[in-house]
Records
---
Amino acid sequence: MSKVMQRKDRCSMPLSDEPQPVNPPLNPPNEQASHRRLTAFLAAMAFFLSTVEYMLPRPIPFMRLGLANIPILFAVDLLPLPWYLLLALVKVLGMSVLTGSLFSYIALFSLAGTMTSALAMRLVRRVARHRVSLIGLCVAGAVSSNLVQVLLARLLVFGQSARYMLPAFLGLGLVSGLALGFAAQRFSTRSAWLARVGGQHGQSRS
Amino acid sequence: MIRHKPSFTLLDGLIILLAAFAFGYSALVVYGGPAPSSVVVSAGGKDWVYPLSENREFAIQGPLGITRIRIHDGSAYFTESPCDNKTCLSSAHAHASGDWIACLPNGVFLRVEGDATEGQVLDAIVR
């Protein structure tokens, strides 16, 4: 019984659907360790979602839903900037290993897209604070990521022709951003786990 | 207690509107051109222009190897590529102005455009 209790204490996932009390903010000595654990957990979630996305059939080439960005979207309100950027970096590395593109320049597109998206979401949150929901954040992140990837394609590979990619990439960014944003927003209002983690980490962000 | 999260807000709407406007404007510029008449293939900083109306097959050299492209019955598509993911091979055929197919690993980009050479008989042009 005591072993079960200890395991429960260490577990970060919700154990029931019942709302749970928000924990008090972390004390400074525990803060770094807690941020490290949450970063590792969110990175693992990103790897898992990358794998799920890799298995999904793509109706058209370049169509990517961006499931692995959901943990980064939640991390906007949960992690301090250095840990947040580390999470984005680890997500890129993990995805590149999974898809086998780590040592190709395709990884550069992934890196530029993910870091731009992460910074754009963080910037929008900083400027607009809670006047914007996860839906707006996600659309801003997805569209800015796709824009930067088209820009890189123009500069590094295709030259002027890359402008033809803009409508498809902007449209896909908008659709995938909306889909993920609504899903994340719905999850965030119902998840007892996110409420608990937000109580520990989020208060130090605002 | 579950923390209050803002639901859909005015700023969300503004961000979505901006993204939709950028999409609409770029689509108008890219797809709003004249009727399709030629296939432009870009690789290694050069453009090759072929008439869309003539069936043919040709090879383009990229950093990984040779990409083969076929123009058939007013559509252009990749038939062979040295890349790993073969995304370019599964792309829809390009036949309308603004349609494109890209192979990022081999640096080959194909697009269909309507241009000033429409109506002229051309074999191929290198820009």
Note: Chain A touches chain B through 50 residues (CB under 8 Å).
---
Amino acid sequence: MLVGLADPAARRTGAPRMPDLATAPVTLEGVSVLQVLCEVANDTAELLPPALHPTLPGVVTWLVYDCPDSPWGSFRLAQTRIECRSGTRPRGLLVSGVIDNDAAREALGPRWGYRLVPGSVDFRRGYDGVEAVVYGAGREPVLALELREPVLLPPDVVQFVASVHPAETPRGYRLVQVDPRHDVHRAERGHPEVSLFDGEAWGEPEIAPSHPISAAVCLADVTLPKLRFVCRPGEMAFTGTEPITDT
Amino acid sequence: MKFGVMYELSVPRPFAGGIERTVIENALEQIRLADSLGFDTAWAVEHHFLEEYSHSSAPELFLTAAAMQTERIRVGHSAVVCVPEMNHPIRVAERAAFLDILSGGRLELGTARSSTWTELGGFQADPDATKRDWDEYVRVLPRMWTEERFSWEGTCFSMPERAILPKPIQKPHPPLWVTVTSPGTELDAADRGIGCLGVAAATFAEQERRTREYHRRIQLCDPVGAVNDQVSTLNFLYCHEDLAIGAERGMQMLGTFGLLNSHLLFTREAYPTRAYATLGNLAPGQGRRSEKGSPGDAYGIPDGMCIGDPKLVIAAIKEWESIGVDQVNFMLNAAEVLPQEQVLESLRLFAREVMPAFPRPEPAEAD
């Protein structure tokens, strides 16, 4: 059976610190969300802790939010995730993210366990597609995505998989389940293009994107949720999952 | 009620050391036993690239071996993937006819379109086109089998007039089925007059609703060939005299299957499209529990699963029977988590204690 083979503490260095797990939900309205999925050439089992299982084939997902308003002001956020399973459920392990708003970064890390670095995100919507270019703190591009020739889809067709965020919590180092709700008002799919990915800059040099699968762009209200579960990274979810209700 | 055995041919890691051969030989031994015990059909799936979960990439070869080693049991291809990048329709017709001849007219042909990106992406197939292409396949297959010469101008393929050979020996042709995972596919089956090969583990209530509508719609069908109006459902079988032992081993099999299944990348998850309304996931849903209370509840056995002692298994099948299901097809193992002798003993116990509770139709004679 396929299980994660990485050291459970491999992502502990630099993991965000969460002072408590009693996070109140926040709804972000009118967010443009670009989601691109791409197969990777490597075995993602090597990149996942034992709590998680790889998918066949290994897949990396990029999520880019262009958020016009929030309690912390407008922001743009780009995330790199490795698709996986927790028990039998689909999940995406957050590798890291880039965000252009310091106040949002200082809220998202301690409250939801987002591992973020400051940078900038260009997000351009045209009649024939969407472009997103992500720049790290050094102003070098670290990711370039495109969606070409968009076609409208029913809003419920685009699937968003819950994330797991490695974080230091009051219970110790845990994988925090974060399952934002996406209320999609408009959805389009297009041809995906991935012209640049600097894995080292994202903290995972081993990710080797190979075959783009799909690109979707949505207009959605995104609710960053109340936290419900954490999981010990060294154990399978069946035994390592801890509910947060008793916190 | 008819009973079948169904094979994914799941293989535990590591794949070296002849384990694939062991899995295949164990399955063939089970089919020989099932044949002698009075099971009706042995089905084998077609999957590609699904490590551990299913190594059944050439089911027509597996079923040929099964047919050569048995006398009576029917052999079911469940199902040939009707995607041009995987199987050209001419080759589907040819291989099926050949197997029908070799088996002495015992072939059942299921059709499908694949539900995973793992497979569709591997063959660079377009998920948006699979339903349309499947429709074209099921319309041409009966004609390829029954017309002396055949030509076609279609959407997913075209061909000048040729004789597609050989012809099957069942007349007018082997029964056609479609695997049903997405809700609504049972209606596609009914409208075309083909059998409903249930492979998603649905609840009784859901299956009853879909079966009733299937039987209503098929009365009004515009058949693509000879009408096959049967409904089958997928199940898991582990039967033991001791309920606790039966439940423990059966749930171990079910859990293993669910984990292997979860590794697959389903099309709906990876590629947004209207063509895949559901995951197409075969694993019984968590929380699928009896609303009425069942002795199996104490062991966490999902509602309707044929796991436990003979009494519990009979009760489950009676309920499937009551909602109009004609055939229950059983998976017997997952990644060899159960030793072969336990699987064989479960089959023998089923034949001895469960089968007599269900009147059996005489097996059809081949033409």
Note: Residues 243-262 of chain B form the longest helix (20 residues).
